[in-house]
């Protein structure tokens, strides 16, 4: 069954608009999957909004995606946030990715959203879920991959991507789950005509945005993006998350503007 948009309540992190009203209008996506669509507080009723599909890491949406979502909403971009996925076996790709084509069709059917300005953003395991869905192409302006667990399997999936004209691959240089050489191979595996930006954050490890899960300076074990029951150490950092969120926002705004 194709996705259907239905009204839900606001997410826990949704803020208030300057006029005191709700900052976002939240929508659930029912069908094969469920999701939350959050609309920016400032929007024109006769001008459709760009939208970012956000796939969280394996632990699902929550505080780790909060800052990214806030930055997008503050800049007039709607946010369609999908649930977390399953633990992939044997270090491969997850068994099933989100139904990208129905999601894009649902966006096109909503007059508030601009189906010509859609970007994808994925964290950790979410990146491994979204790449297979891009093999057939699609009207996607940009793809953002944060610490996706770079390896030969992911590089193989990157070679088949056909639907993201601009790509940002961002990870830290102290991330054991994302070796810089392996990530360079993934970046180089995308089709030659794609504009790929491979960026490395100095001093950052895996899952820098999990700072709400630990005390300042603490560390936490997160699901490894390649799954198979493995875990990856994360020493989250709020400042690194702010830097990453700003880089992601700048990249998405430029891609949606065609720059």
From TrEMBL:
It comes from the Bacteria. InterPro entries: AB_hydrolase_fold. This is Dienelactone hydrolase. It comes from Roseicella aerolata.
């Amino acid at each position: 069954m194709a996705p259907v948009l239905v009204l839900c309540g606001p997410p826990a992190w949704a803020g208030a608009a300057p006029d005191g009203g709700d900052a976002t209008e939240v929508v659930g996506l029912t069908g094969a999957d469920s999701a939350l669509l959050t609309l920016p507080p400032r929007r024109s009723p006769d001008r459709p909004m760009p939208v970012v599909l956000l796939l969280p890491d394996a632990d699902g949406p929550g505080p780790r995606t909060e800052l990214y979502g806030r930055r997008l909403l503050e800049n007039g971009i709607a946010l369609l946030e999908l649930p977390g996925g399953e633990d992939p076996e044997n270090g491969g790709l997850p068994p099933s990715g989100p139904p990208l084509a129905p999601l894009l069709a649902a966006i096109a059917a909503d007059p508030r959203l601009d189906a010509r300005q859609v970007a994808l953003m994925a964290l950790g395991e979410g990146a491994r879920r979204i790449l297979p869905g891009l093999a057939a192409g699609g009207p996607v302006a940009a793809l953002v991959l944060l610490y996706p667990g770079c390896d030969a399997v992911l590089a193989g999936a990157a070679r088949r991507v056909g639907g993201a004209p601009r790509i940002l691959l961002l990870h830290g240089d102290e991330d054991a789950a994302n070796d810089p050489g392996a990530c360079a191979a993934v970046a180089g595996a995308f089709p030659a005509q794609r504009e790929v930006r491979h960026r490395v954050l100095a001093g950052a490890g895996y899952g820098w945005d999990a700072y709400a899960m630990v005390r300042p300076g603490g560390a936490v074990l997160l699901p490894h993006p390649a799954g198979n029951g493995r875990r990856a150490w994360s020493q989250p950092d709020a400042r690194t998350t702010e830097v990453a969120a700003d880089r992601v926002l700048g990249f998405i705004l430029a891609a949606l503007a065609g720059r």
